[in-house]
Design goal:
The chain is α+β, with helices and mostly antiparallel strands. It is about 20% helix and about 45% strand. It is built from 2 helices and 7 strands. It has helices at about 30-40, 80-85; strands at about 5-15, 15, 25, 50-55, 60-70, 75-80, 95-100. It has a 7-stranded antiparallel beta sheet. The two termini are about 15 Å apart.
Amino acid sequence: MPSANNTYTFKAKVWLYAGPTPWHFVTLPKKLAAEIKAFHGGLAKSFGTIAVLAKIGGTEWKTSVFSDTKSGSYVLPLKADVRKKEKIVAETMIKVTLTI
């Protein structure tokens, strides 16, 4: 059953993809990812993306979660301006709220 108002809150550790252009991400818990896929998977666009409104601390922004076959979940990219405002660095545990 989808959550009230299609809003989901979870805690996850920030990790760094250290490719040619480093990006910070959080991976959604697998149980939550399965629920989102079951109830909102029909909204997926190219690359399995689902549009969301993300909130960390006092910062809210429109983005997408991306399907990640390696983890079997979704990943949320963390923009540089969000990381600066909320003082987020790799390996930090953060609380995230997503509204679909």
